[in-house]
Every structure is written in structure tokens, then in C-alpha cells.
Amino acid sequence: MKRIIPARRAVRPRASRPAGPSHLEEAFALHLLAERLPAAQREYRFARPERQWRFDFAWPELMVAAEVEGGTRSGGRHTRGSGYEADCEKYNAAALRGWRVFRFTGAMVLKGQAVGVIAEAINQAITDKDPSQ
Predict the structure, then answer these.
(1) pTM over 0.85
(2) What is the chain's pLDDT, residue by residue, as a tens digit (133 residues)?
(3) Residue 55 forms beta bridges with which residues?
(4) Looking at residue 88, which CATH number applies to its domain?
(5) Alpha-carbon span 102 to 121, nearest angstrom
(6) Contacts of 120 (CB under 8 A, 6+ apart)
(7) Domain membership of residue 99 as a residue range
(8) Rg of the chain in Å (alpha carbons)
(9) Contact 44, 54 (CB under 8 A)
(10) Whether the Cβ atoms of residue 99 and residue 64 lie closer than 8 Å to each other
(11) How many domains, the chain?
(12) Residue 94 falls within a domain, yes or no?
């Protein structure tokens, strides 16, 4: 009897980072504009020179950052072992440097919850910086 060996699936090489912003990041950027919030710096490097970590959106003068975590329901990088561990390292380093980092799923962005949280964080940071406001 002849043994049948199943065909191997082709393995696509994985990019280290997708080219350009995701559709969720673009949606969040539009929400920020619609709410007339201060402009964010995109892909902001916060741990120079020792690391290449970047925030999706950052307000460095207020030490506020937003991360749009795509693929949370489809087993994306942010929910798998090594990706989740790398995120923990990054967010802990940010906290030690005084950053307030807010993480949002795609659903939170699309429902408008993310922009509401960031608006509150920015307003609070401005008030903390200058209590007379």
C-alpha cells in the first residue's frame, strides 16, 4: 500500500511591520481631527537611543500616548506569546519614563470610545500641567 503524504502549505514570509498606517490608525486619526484635539505625533520614538519603540500616536509635551492594537480577535501579534511579551516590555518602559499609554482595540476605535478616552486624558494632562485652566 502506497503512503500518501499531505502537501505542505506555502508559508508566506512575515513583514516585521506593515508598510504605512493601518485602516484603524487612519480612522483614529480622523476621529482626533473631528474632535479638534491637539495634533498627535505619529510613530513617535520614546526611548532613544537604546530602543526602537514607537507609539502610534503621542503627545510628548503631555506624556500621553495611544496605541491601536489591531488583530486582537484574529490572533494577531498583540495577543500571541512573544508579541504580547514585547508589548509588556515596551509599555512598562514607557510607564517608568512617566508616560500614560492608552491601548485600544479596533472595535474601541470604530465605536468612538478611543477618541473619548484620549480627549479626557489630554484635558486632564493639560489641567495637571497648568491647574489654573
Answers:
(1) no
(2) 666 655 555 544 444 555 667 899 999 999 999 999 999 999 999 987 778 899 999 999 999 999 999 765 555 555 556 778 989 999 999 999 999 999 999 999 999 999 999 999 999 999 998 777 6
(3) 44
(4) 3.40.960.10
(5) 9
(6) none
(7) 23-129
(8) 19
(9) yes
(10) yes
(11) 1
(12) yes
